[in-house]
Amino acid sequence: MSRALPIDRDQLRAALRELLDDPRPAAARPEVLAAVAAERQRRHEDDDGDDAPDSPITGDFARLSMLAEEVGDVARQLGPHATDPDALRPELIQVAAVALAWADRLDELDGAPF
User: Fold this and answer.
1) Is 67 within the bounds of a domain?
2) Cα(67)–Cα(100) distance, rounded to whole angstroms?
3) Residue at 50 is within a domain
4) Measured between alpha carbons, how far is 106 from 76 in angstroms, rounded to an integer?
5) Are 75 and 64 in contact, with CB atoms under 8 Å apart?
6) Number of structural domains, the chain?
7) Of 14, 43, 84, 89, which is least surrounded by CB within 10 A?
8) Contact yes or no for 97/36 (Cβ under 8 A)
9) Is 88 exposed, middle or buried (0-12, 13-18, 19+ CB in 10 A)?
10) For residue 58, what are the contacts with CB-CB under 8 A and spacing of at least 6?
11) How far apart are alpha carbons 87 and 106 in whole angstroms?
């Protein structure tokens, strides 16, 4: 189900109300969580763990760079030159994997960045 993006403040408010009133549970579906976990594992193995977002030697600025790159990939999939409609979901999974790895790492450090 695809909807047009809200273009003015009233449409945005209506869209937010609709999301907040959605009776579906807020948690992600298990297959989405499994895809995020698999992406985290793949990324960790591809980088030999050293440059992965959950690595203890990767700094927060490097993690930010990783996350921004993944968000940029999502933006490209939504742009006028996107060619593969099936490419958006994997890019979103990558964003979630990097963000989750970073959050997990902060929890390991007791919330202290850097």
Assistant:
1) yes
2) 10
3) yes
4) 29
5) no
6) 1
7) 84
8) yes
9) middle
10) 50, 51, 52, 105
11) 29
Residues of the chain under the 70 pLDDT cut:
1-8, 12, 16, 19-20, 22, 24-26, 47, 49, 109-114
Specify if 78 maps to a domain: yes
**Domain residue limits at 92:** 27-108
Structure tokens at 113: 């960045």
Write down the residue that tokens 């992600």 correspond to. 28
- Between helix 88-108 and helix 30-46 the angle, nearest 10°, is 70
Query: Are residues 68 and 77 in contact, defined by beta-carbon separation less than 8 angstroms?
Result: no
Residues 106, 102: Cα–Cα separation, whole Å: 6
Q: Which pLDDT belongs to residue 2?
A: 47
Q: Are the C-beta atoms of residues 38 and 62 closer than 8 Å to each other?
A: no
**Token pair in block for residue 15:** 């869209």
Please give the DSSP secondary-structure letter assigned to residue 28.
P
Task: Please state the pTM of the whole predicted model.
Answer: 0.71
Is residue 56 assigned to a domain? Answer: yes
